[in-house]
Amino acid sequence: VGAQTARMKMTPVPVHGGFSWQAYNEETTAFEDSSFMMVGLLEQINATRDVSDYLWYMTDVNINSKEAFLRGGKWPVLSVQSAGHALHNVGPHFERWNAGVLGPVTLYGLNEGRRDLTWQKWSYKVGLKGEALSLHSLSGSSSVEWAQGSLVARRQPLTWYKTVVNAPAGNTPLALDMGSMGKGQIWINGQSIGRYWPAYKASGSCGWCDYAGTYSEKKCLSNCGEASQRWYHVPRSWLNPTGNLLVVFEEWDIYEWQPTLINYEMQASGKVNKPLHPKAHLSCSPGQKISKVKFASFGMPQGACGSFREGSCHAFHSYDVFQKVQVEPKLI
């Protein structure tokens, strides 16, 4: 079977002055009149009735003053048997866990035993404050105070970002590159561009293969280590010549040492006991090669592709890695 194929070439659009981002953090919800209480854990879709993708779960755990860990013993472990992906803000002393809330919840280590938290009283609240205020819309975005300047860099989970952009000249198709983000949603002028999740990478072993023979789900894998989608189409019919509101809601805490989901899983499983730093890879399309690195800055560079400049925060040894490694048309 022969088929004509075409590979789309994505060209960065220079943005005069770059994007000026503002941020609003979605605080852990307060359980007010709109919350309700039930015994046991509820299934999310049934509880939210599909009006929101987000459901907050909250319960109380009383710690006896005689617990051994309070006197220098081993700290208790919270176990969540779930296929979920993230558990945010579990009390003041917990980090983010690579697990969801749906499923049995057990606290190990209390009085040298275990406590099943699944069938006690849980409080529930549907949705986010930003959803209720319609922060993605032109009218709702002005209802809160947005952080600006250096405060935007203080990234944390569940954060809304907004900026105003002008429509690029011409009539060619436009797309947003979300490859550096984690997981969330995008809007332009109140219209949903879609959900993104590039931090969830495809795993497996890619290489030469032969399609002949019996098929299996592990046969002829491609794009290993890549996101299922990186580019998100922006219809020009949704854009005004100037003053377009672009809003991004990011669920994960994207930062300079952002590990992959696989790294999170390895750390959560106990296979490693130290942070796994991600690696940056430069590559070209087939038949092309990297001849020169014109700009490199580990910090907060300003500008756009083709006209970057050093920002207020810059590591002066940013070029060292390129001097140590010979640039070739392969992953480095």
TrEMBL record:
<keyword id="KW-0326">Glycosidase</keyword>
<dbReference type="InterPro" id="IPR000922">
    <property type="entry name" value="Lectin_gal-bd_dom"/>
</dbReference>
<dbReference type="Pfam" id="PF21467">
    <property type="entry name" value="BetaGal_gal-bd"/>
</dbReference>
<keyword id="KW-0378">Hydrolase</keyword>
<dbReference type="GO" id="GO:0005975">
    <property type="term" value="P:carbohydrate metabolic process"/>
</dbReference>
<dbReference type="GO" id="GO:0004565">
    <property type="term" value="F:beta-galactosidase activity"/>
</dbReference>
<protein>
    <recommendedName>
        <fullName>SUEL-type lectin domain-containing protein</fullName>
    </recommendedName>
</protein>
<dbReference type="GO" id="GO:0030246">
    <property type="term" value="F:carbohydrate binding"/>
</dbReference>
<dbReference type="InterPro" id="IPR001944">
    <property type="entry name" value="Glycoside_Hdrlase_35"/>
</dbReference>
<feature type="domain" description="SUEL-type lectin">
    <location>
        <begin position="274"/>
        <end position="324"/>
    </location>
</feature>
<dbReference type="InterPro" id="IPR048913">
    <property type="entry name" value="BetaGal_gal-bd"/>
</dbReference>
<dbReference type="InterPro" id="IPR008979">
    <property type="entry name" value="Galactose-bd-like_sf"/>
</dbReference>
